[in-house]
Amino acid sequence: MNIALFGSGEFTDAVKSIDQYLIDTFSIKSLAVIPAAAGREKDARKWIDMAISHYAAFDIKVVPVDIYNRIDANNPDLVELITDVDCVFFSGGDPNYLFDVLNGSRLWHTLINRLGDGVLLAGSSAGAMVLGSHILKYPFRAILSSKDVGWTKAFGLIDYVVFPHFDRFKQHQKLFQKIFSFNDTFQWLGIDEDTAIIFTPSGNKILGRGEVEIHDR
After folding, report:
1. Sheet of 188-191: strands edge to edge?
2. Alpha-carbon distance 135 to 151, whole Å?
3. Which of 64, 4, 73 is nearest to 30 (CA)?
4. Where are the domains of the chain?
């Protein structure tokens, strides 16, 4: 299983060196972009436009997959678009919404089969979080005003809770301390902005301007 998790920066010059490594390592000639995490935002399609502009410099074919809700995720015509690409990329947005859109969908079942074929699955921010073991139930502001930190199961392709934007996140000490007051049930990793960690059967690699902080049980 080949998975790349970005802390942020997808489809920008800040991650050009990461993208070049992925393209060379996984022989990527076509890439499907799925902006579903931003499906409730008016400008959700901007992620596809950004990807088309960004990957033009790499001579990569970008396949727009206009999935923004659960109906779209079960549309066979849209799902078919990921059956012949080398990489599938989930951009940022709302992790809980993205999980609800994908969970049990035709798209997700097709993607799992494609992972067995060696396709690279990439996710940034919310797109990375849902691939981990759990995600927070509530937005950060709600967590600060609530008594408890709630969790919900995610897809578990990576056996860690994934925290993107980690270098920025650590600056908010009250929020940081409250979230990390949970017990040792979870393994977790924090990915700095403009940084990625790549998981492959042969090992892991960290690329970009920042670091990845990993906490095993």
Report:
1. 161-163, 188-191, 212-215
2. 6
3. 64
4. 2-215
Is residue 127 within a helix (H) or strand (E), and if so which, with residue range?
Answer: helix 126-129
Residues 6+ apart with CB under 8 A from 208: 7, 9, 15, 17, 18, 192, 194, 195, 196
Cα angle: 212, vertex 215, 217; to 5 degrees? 155
Specify the CATH class of 2-215 in words: alpha beta
For residue range 110-124, list pLDDT tens digits in order. Answer: 999 999 899 999 999
CB 83, CB 29: distance < 8 Å: no
* C-alpha separations of 7 from 35, 43, 96, 124, 186 in Å: 16, 21, 17, 6, 19
Please give the structure tokens belonging to residue 80: 């078919």
Q: Which two tokens stand for residue 86?
A: 């080398």
Q: What is the pLDDT of residues 179-191, one digit of tens each?
A: 776 656 788 999 9
- pLDDT tens per residue across span 26-56: 999 999 999 999 999 999 999 999 999 999 9
